[in-house]
Amino acid sequence: MPSTDRRALLAGTSAVLTALSGCADLGSSSDQRNGESDPHWVSTYLGDREETHRVTVTVTNANGDVLFERGYQLSDSNEADEDATFPASTDPETIAVTVDGTRFERDWPGFEQRALPCDSSNEAGVEIYVENAQDGTPDVQLEADCQSITGA
């Protein structure tokens, strides 16, 4: 897993580059995004930096509509994708993570999680850790969390 210092450095560098590019969304109020609340979020991390994995993350609602889908080629040089967002108003139900062709499906975190529901200034999201099981097959760990992230 990436270290906290490395995450902080990456986050700081990303914020500076975004601001320099003129694309920064410096406000966080919901009225800046046509009344939408802050978004749900997905962060994906490579657990073993010596591995390379092709990963697809898909979030669907109760009707099976795709709310979020993103593909990654995780490796030592691309070991994380943090805070990818989708609208909070979409009511996610299922998250599917496919690692090198192996599919893992879980319920979107709900009220049964200790940290949830989130308070009004935060939205629920998941951290996905792509790892290998002891037998060498792909495995994923999902952790629910709350944080305030503004969408673009």
Approximately how much helix is present in the residues?
10-25%
**Using DSSP, what is the number of strands?**
8
Q: What does the overall shape look like?
A: globular
Q: Radius of gyration, Cα only, in angstroms?
A: 16 Å
| Share of residues in strands | 35-45%
* Spans where pLDDT lies below 50 across 5 or more residues: 6-35
| Average of the residue pLDDT scores | 74
| Largest sheet composition | 4 strands, mixed
Alpha-beta classification = mainly beta
Q: How would you describe the oligomerization state of the chains in this entry?
A: single chain
How far apart, in Å, are the first and last alpha carbons? 27 Å
**Strand order of the main beta sheet, please?**
4-1-7-8
Element order, helices and strands? HEEEEEEEE
Number of helices: 1
